[in-house]
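REVIEWER CHECKLIST
Item 1: Sequence provided? yes
Item 2: Single chain? yes
Item 3: Sequence as submitted:
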Amino acid sequence: MSSALPSQKPRTCRTSSIRAFNHLNRRSGAAAEVTLHDIVSQLQEHWRGTFQGAAVVWRMWPNHITRKMNRSTWINLINQAPPDYASLNRSAQLALDCVAASIADNAQLQSDVEAIGGRLEIQKNRLQSRKDTIEAFIRDILPPVRHDIVDPLPAIDNVADLEHEE
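Item 4: Structure as written out by the authors:
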């Protein structure tokens, strides 16, 4: 009994497909030199403005990319930062986000300080107004006439200090 579905035809291997695969891949399945040069060219074209390095360094990156045999992912990997820098980029982005948040916090704090400064100025003006009112009230109070003031000292009895006697 055949396991193939009736609508499926058995695939045939074409010689042209084998030659194309052999041209781009070695027998072990690793990428051929032509493929690596092509990827190096694409990487340099895309990343030359960002990264500098010797030829050997540029050749290490395609080896990482071609480890994944699925060619459809290679273009995406070429457009991504090098694997060694990917985590640095995330860390740098996190640091940038933290700094941006701190700048926003400082702006809010500056706004709060300005608001508090305004409130302090208003409070200072209120207190000055109250002080002026109290000073005016004090100026309006006349001191008592001297003959109306009774000196309390003659009316105080002299009591012996028994607690401090020796």
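Item 5: Key structural point noted by reviewer: The helical segments are 15-24, 33-47, 55-66, 74-79, 83-140.
Item 6: Recommendation: ____
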